[in-house]
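idk why but the lab printer keeps eating my pages so im just putting this in chat instead. protein + glycyl-adenosine-5'-phosphate:
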Amino acid sequence: MAKQEDTFKKVISHAKEYGFIFPSSEIYDGLSAVYDYAQNGVELKKNIREYWWKAMVQLHENIVGIDAAIFMHPTTWKASGHVDAFSDPLIDNKDSKKRYRADVLIEDYCAKIEKKIDKEVKKAEKRFGDAFNKEEFLNTNPRVLGYQEKINAILKRMGQSLEKEDLADVKALIEELGIVCPVSGSKNWTDVKQFNLMFGTKLGADAASSTELYLRPETAQGIFVNFANVQKTGRMKIPFGIAQAGKAFRNEIVARQFIFRMREFEQMEMQFFVKPGTEMEWYNKWKEERLNWHKSLGLGEDKYRFHDHDKLAHYANAAADIEFKFPFGFKELEGIHSRTDFDLKAHEEFSGKKLQFFDHETNTNYVPYVVETSVGLDRLFLAIFSTALQDETLEDGSTRTVLKIPSILAPTKIAVFPLLKKDGLPEKAKEIVADLKYDFMVAYDEKDAVGRRYRRQDALGTPFCVTLDHQTLEDNTVTIRNRDTMQQERVAISEIAAIVNEAISFKKWINK
Ligand code: GAP
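predcted complex ->
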């Protein structure tokens, strides 16, 4: 546990120290669970968004993108069910006066049991060495099976109680499990109550005529209300998708774990409109496609797992999370939801407008079903950044901190160094920068010894460093150093762009 916490602290401090993420309005002591992306963070975030956008919109001829406004007509949220049902079950500890999400308290309890399973696995791994078969062990060891059964039973009961809105049973479960407040250590709990997560604001100048608005809690509704506009103007035929990346806002009660759970965050969502009855086929297809998309980034196959939901949102008939192994354990990274025709039907009802598709083959109109993929951009940033941050001990015993961000996502692709600050080397280096900057984010650095400059770029995740020396002036060659292997190669200046382009080719990455 202590190691996990240390790793996570390091992630947060590295993100700040190297200009990736700052606490919001820090000069006023910050704002809880709100963060600003700094000069390097904004590049990484933009590159992640683009990697998603290209995979969704550019590679699928039947998916188009939109950018809907954050403000929407307030009836949108009545129709979508968010006014009535977008809430979290909260519980207060009477001694510490701290407020918690009841489901998170229970999930944290289960995570502790899961750690016991991990411990058993580690012990057995040591005992059996190479002969150890993890899968078999997990499926047969009585102690592990006992723990797993307990987790399943707890989560099942919680899911059912939440679905039935039986909040008294959620409290009873917390009491039966003996869950204590992490601050006061007491079991003195209030009843569990629902709390709406939408932020309200007002449109208009005077109090009497102003309209109550909400900041959108998901980007999806901007897609639903534009369904007919896009379908007609884009001449889209079912099945087709509409993708969108943009800000969403939630008044999260338990906002914690850095950018994992924020009050203002960014979602990348795609609503895929399908013929009723085919939704399960598409749901499974999108589950697989999204998992493959994540895996293409090369963070490690074992970092992902599916979690199929017992408790379904008010709009879904099937739902799964792609979970990622964050420094604090496996947590939701992306949701894939079969949303039925709930949203389009509700908007039809509340707006009085038809949101249907005319099928020329059968000469019938129908309200399409929807399969949604929804990933948090900030969460994805955290997944990539925390996995990429590594401390390495080198062959000579020295250490380095390196950010092994997939090169296609790296904020800066090339750093150019003149070996010395004289003899015309800086001028020549600046010529190279001036040429490369049209195609790549390029940094120039002439300060300190070249070894220190390499370390600085390693910590920023720059995949290539180009160094000029006196030979460069004679034959127009440089050394190019690879961040991950630290190998240096002598190449012609004219070859740099091709080497970098090869390493950051979208086609290569996405087809991995
Ligand atoms: N339209 C469906 C929807 O919004 P969700 O599971 O509530 O579903 C989708 O959210 C994704 O958005 C999550 O998997 C997560 O990555 C991200 N997300 C949700 N709440 C977040 C928060 N408070 N901070 C950061 N990311 C969040």
